[in-house]
Design brief:
This protein is flat. It starts with 5 loop residues before the first strand and ends with a helix. It has three helices and eight strands. The strands form three sheets. The chain has a four-stranded mixed sheet with strand order 7-1-2-8, covered by helices on one side. The longest helix is centred in the last third of the chain and has 14 residues, at about 175-190. It is an alpha+beta fold and about 190 residues long.
Length: about 190
């Protein structure tokens, strides 16, 4: 199940419906770590795998069908009653993660993370500095209420407004009211 992005109430007039928002689209990102090789990987020798052959078909007068385990053993090249071995693991190189050091520009000595602050360059070479608490205070408080001010038809909304899309779902206790609102919107085309 997708994780909840926001939880609150959808309100209009005297109606209040508990809802949850879920992301409808998610940017697919692949994260890589910076690593370096510590030892060269040795080439791994692999035996060629024998070709797979399907088991022979049985006639209609044959005994009852074999069990699932017997089918798996029969599918194994050469048949047999030995357990099927897992495939060999791919070769793995020995690597270590890269550690990033923050160096000062003058003597290139490493700096402690506590010495590094964030700044905004408002002119060439001039900065306004912010500490962590000031940056936290800049974030706006999120509301627990989404107010419907006006209903609109989909064709009336500029597509530029659809920067992010979400699914809204009723929370506990709001299922019937939410379904009623959804049905009214469908019937009226809003």
């Amino acid at each position: 199940m997708p994780s909840t992005v926001w939880k609150g109430h959808l309100t209009f007039g005297l109606v209040s419906i508990p809802i949850r928002l879920y992301r409808a689209a998610r940017a697919e990102k692949v994260s890589f770590r910076h690593v370096y090789r510590t030892a060269p990987a040795a080439p791994e020798h692999r035996e060629p795998e024998p070709a797979w052959e399907p088991p022979p078909r049985q006639s209609s007068s044959a005994p009852p069908p074999p069990s699932k385990a017997a089918k798996l053993l029969a599918m194994r090249p050469g048949g047999g009653s030995q357990p099927i071995a897992p495939p060999p693991a791919p070769p793995v190189e020995t690597v270590e993660r890269v550690r990033h050091a923050v160096l000062s520009r003058d003597d290139e000595a490493p700096l402690a993370r506590s010495e590094v602050v964030k700044g905004y360059e408002y002119e060439k070479g001039r900065y306004i500095l912010f500490d962590q608490q000031e940056l936290r205070d800049l974030a706006p408080e999120t509301s627990r209420e989404m107010v419907i001010i006006e209903f609109a038809r989909l064709a009336e909304i500029d597509p530029i407004c659809f920067e992010s899309s979400y699914y809204a779902a009723p929370d506990r206790g709001g299922e019937r009211t939410y379904a009623l609102l959804l049905e009214a919107l469908r019937k009226t085309g809003y």
